[in-house]
Amino acid sequence: MLRYYNRDMRHCARAVWRWCALLGIVVSVLSCGRYLEKSLGTPRVDGDVVTFRVKVPSARTVQVAGDWPRNNWAGGDAEAGEVLVGLMGETSEEGVWELAVRLGPGRYRYRFLVNETAWILDPENPRVVDDGRGGKANLLIVP
């Protein structure tokens, strides 16, 4: 009788282990779902045109701000009456904002300004550097 009991316990233990393994796989897939979303591929450099894209579904306005001429961290040239410099347009994809900018070769720092109040980094660009103002910015290298 003990022999049958041990065999049944091993069978039960294997079944429990299989269910735990299956549950672990399901939880892993569900928790990694945000990483399975399609990449925006930003910033995209094509010659001297750089295309910035960012997904901010709740935004009313999004600006790309950087340290290149004519942008001045989205400040523009106040004397020339420039406002909302770097204003991005919404694309056909829900919550995705896009702007193409002509930039010469060099290294540029940038980040996004959402609703004219909140600064966010580009989640698609892992290059992060000091912004020169005590904060962080993304690094863009245009060859």
Question: In words, what does this structure look like?
Answer:
A hairpin with a 2-residue loop joins strand 1 and strand 2. The longest helix is centred in the first third of the chain and has 30 residues, at 2-31. The strands form two sheets. Strands 3, 6, 7, 8 and 9 form a five-stranded antiparallel β-sheet that branches. The protein has one helix and nine strands. It folds into two domains: 2-36; 44-142, Immunoglobulin-like (Sandwich), CATH 2.60.40.10. The chain has 143 residues and is of the alpha+beta class.
Summarize the structure.
By secondary structure, this protein is α+β, with helices and mostly antiparallel strands. It has one helix and nine strands; from the N terminus they run αβββββββββ.
Number of strands: 9
Rg from Cα: 25 Å
Tell me, what's the shape? elongated
Largest sheet: 5 strands, antiparallel
Per CATH, the architecture of the largest domain is: Sandwich
Task: Kindly report how far apart the N and C termini lie.
Answer: 77 Å
The number of distinct helices, counting runs of at least 4 residues, comes to: 1
Structural class: alpha+beta
Mean pLDDT: 80
Assembly state of the chains shown:
single chain
CATH topology of the largest domain: Immunoglobulin-like
Break the fold down into its secondary structure elements and pairings.
Blueprint: H1 2-31, E1 44-46, E2 49-55, E3 62-66, E4 89-90, E5 96-102, E6 106-114, E7 118-120, E8 128-130, E9 136-142
Antiparallel strand pairs: 1-2, 2-5, 3-6, 4-5, 6-7, 6-9, 8-9
Features:
143 residues, alpha+beta, Immunoglobulin-like, 2 domains, 5-stranded antiparallel beta sheet, 4-stranded antiparallel beta sheet, 1 helix, 21% helix, 32% strand, elongated
